[in-house]
Write the structure tokens for this entry.
Amino acid sequence: MIEGKYGVFMHYQYRILLGYSIKTNPQFPEPKQMTPEGWNRLVDGFDAARFAEQMAEGKVGWVIFCLDDHYFAWPCAPNQAFSQFTGYAPGEKCSGRDLILDVAEALHAKGIRLIVYFAGLNGYMKEPKVAAGLLEVGGGRGTFNNRQPPPPECRQRRLEVLREYADRYRDKIAGWWFDGVELNTYSGDSNNWQTIERIVRGPNPNAAIAFSFGGNEQACVSPGVDSFTGGDTWNKQDLPRLTPAKVPAQNGIVWHGKIYCGNVYHGQGNANQFTDDELAEWIRTCNREGGICTLDWPFNPATGLLKPFGLEQLKQIARAVKN
């Protein structure tokens, strides 16, 4: 990732595709707006080959791609364990298409690595049936409070879902970016941070790992396990203030800054919010100081392709940073 300098984040989540996010009003769709038919239609429409071409045109080092959604689940790849635990038939909650595998293979053909976003360690708080199936509700807490560690039985089921994905993708992906954890989410004697590492790095010893902890996105959540910081942001950034020198990473892991470049929020908007020069200078500064950057542009929900203004800015960044 240090050699790649910058990557692209794809906030590929059902609610985002429907135009909802924490920056819209309302923030969330009604449950009836999200259907298996609608989800599979969107996932099937994703143009993995052309998306990989766009990433190659932008000379990105990696893509972080959402497998699921922090609030509503809706994985864009099948998972037998998930379906068994939650009672959803294959294709009913998980998509029928394995979009992660298709994107990984398309990117690999262009020399670009895929890192998988996964919220399943402690997410899905707006899906009662999923939470119940994972033994979250009634598993020692009564209600889902994702600020507290999942009950032991719930951890076990969540890790079984992760294990199925990790065993399937192996070294076809470069690593994992885990969303929505607290510092104690997987602490303890069993089913802990080290268990996550074994699940991920067993089939792929070189896998990069990041944990997104909202209390400090430059934290090292589990020394020896995470290799780069979550680096997440939720607002338009003052870029000169968001650098490794100004906000250093903990414990010597790789500093990572993740920002959205559209004028609304992750994957949304109809214009860029930064100039080409602002973004290029930020990336160069972060790289000089030992950091890496992931950029998020608006994309077309029907095809998954970056919108033209975003793609053009990405290509301008490539010329400024990599030429």
In short: DSSP finds ten helices and seven strands in the chain. The radius of gyration is 18 Å. The first strand starts at residue 6 and ends at 10.
